[in-house]
UniProtKB/TrEMBL annotation:
Transmembrane segments: none
Entry-linked PANTHER family: AMINOALKYLPHOSPHONATE N-ACETYLTRANSFERASE-RELATED-RELATED (PTHR43877)
CDD domains attached to this UniProt entry: NAT_SF
Acyltransferase found in the keyword field: yes
Protein name: GNAT family N-acetyltransferase
SUPFAM superfamilies linked: Acyl-CoA N-acyltransferases (Nat)
Domain N-acetyltransferase intervals: 4-150
Keyword annotations of the record: Acyltransferase, Transferase
Pfam families per the UniProt record, alphabetical: Acetyltransf_1
Length: 150
């Protein structure tokens, strides 16, 4: 995978990112790739925020993976800044190829480079394969998460 480039996403990458978000059982029920406007608005907001890093993995001009890295300054743990990894996706035909590990390790190194003392992530409770994947990469299921839809 030495021909892989992980870089900051551009507006032109949004359709490929949304396609990956929609390409699984959970995403198929909640994403609407045929309506680009909400994704374009969200991208503009993310791209303008220095605490956000929407990344894509590109190979041979094709977007094959993505994740969002959010930097969260905090007072707890003696002022530790955390990095939150969200929306990790790998193109369907490359799942199991090691690309996901490369994306996560890139995010961990980027968090370290930005002075973070911790990297955390969430994963839907139904994604048991993803949970095993994150545990293999050294993440511990240390908390219970809660969400409230508004």
């Amino acid at each position: 995978m030495s021909d892989l480039e992980i870089r900051r996403a551009t507006a032109a990458d949004v359709p490929a990112i949304v396609a990956m978000l929609a390409d699984d059982p959970l995403g198929a029920a909640r994403e609407t790739p045929d309506d680009p406007a909400p994704y374009e608005r969200a991208f503009a907001w993310i791209d303008a925020d220095p605490g956000q890093h929407l990344a894509v993995a590109e190979r041979d001009g094709r977007i094959v993976g993505t994740l969002q890295l959010t930097f969260i300054p905090g007072l707890s743990l003696r002022g530790t800044t955390r990095a939150l990894i969200e929306a990790v996706r790998v193109h369907r035909d490359l799942r199991g190829s090691g690309l996901g590990s490369q994306l996560i390790e890139w995010a961990v190194e980027e968090a370290r480079r930005r002075g973070c003392g911790m990297v955390q992530l969430t994963s839907n409770a139904t994604r048991t394969d993803a949970h095993r994947f994150y545990e293999r990469l050294g993440f511990a299921a240390s908390h219970v998460g809660f969400k409230r839809t508004l």
